[in-house]
Structure to design on (221 residues):
């Protein structure tokens, strides 16, 4: 079974802090994705990566960056957290289809 | 860019009633996928449809892909309390397995 592990289930940070969300997958998948999930808006793609050190912007990349130094790990970085980035963040990985999701990180920015 | 609209946003049913959620894309899709997210859980893949007019069944769940490959539906017959959750459609066919998700339909089943 594919295992996608997100480092924290819940996280509380302050406005202006630099925040790191980590995601690790154990299936040697090429593709990894970061989404945020908000009520009524579904899952919106922030960034994705199709190989080590390769990344592409999704639909809502503003205020975020990513890092993929190793194939199994994909990090989401909030450069200077703001209250409108309070959300559920989901990581996913895939080789082709389907996508396999982690349990999510509920991030609160105070 | 590609947009996928899903309706309704909420559906409350009595146990035993049927349920349907609909998905419409602004562009032709090469495939459509359906995911289910239980309360407190993460999205889990249900099925993928690829062919125009395709219909697939999983027990009480019936999935359809439109002839123009721009719309899809999920129908659940005789809902059970175990069906509660949010159902997402997701349009595929772009590079690297990237998906565009609909807003999701939250299904509540009253016993």
């Amino acid at each position: 079974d594919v295992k996608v592990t997100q480092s924290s289930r819940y996280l509380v940070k302050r406005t202006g802090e630099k925040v790191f969300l980590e995601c690790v997958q154990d299936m040697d998948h090429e593709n990894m994705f970061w989404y945020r999930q908000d009520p009524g808006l579904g899952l919106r793609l922030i960034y994705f990566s199709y190989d080590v050190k390769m990344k592409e912007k999704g639909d809502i990349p503003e205020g975020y960056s990513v890092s993929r130094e190793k194939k199994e790990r994909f990090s989401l970085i909030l450069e200077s957290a703001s209250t409108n980035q309070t959300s559920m963040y989901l990581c996913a990985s895939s080789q082709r289809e389907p996508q396999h999701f982690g349990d999510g990180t509920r991030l609160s920015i105070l | 860019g590609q947009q996928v609209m899903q309706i309704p946003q909420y559906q409350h049913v009595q146990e035993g009633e049927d349920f349907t959620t609909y998905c419409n894309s602004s562009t032709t899709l090469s495939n459509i996928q359906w995911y289910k997210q239980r309360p407190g859980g993460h999205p889990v893949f249900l099925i993928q449809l690829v062919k125009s007019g395709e219909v697939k069944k999983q027990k009480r769940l019936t999935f359809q892909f439109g002839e123009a490959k721009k719309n899809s539906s999920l129908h659940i017959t005789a809902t059970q309390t175990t069906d509660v959750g949010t159902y997402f459609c997701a349009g595929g066919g772009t590079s690297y397995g990237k998906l565009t998700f609909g807003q999701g339909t939250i299904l509540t089943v009253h016993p």
The two ends of chain A are 37 Å apart (CA to CA). Chain A has a mean pLDDT of 95. Chain A touches chain B through 27 residues (CB under 8 Å). The first strand of chain A starts at residue 4 and ends at 6.
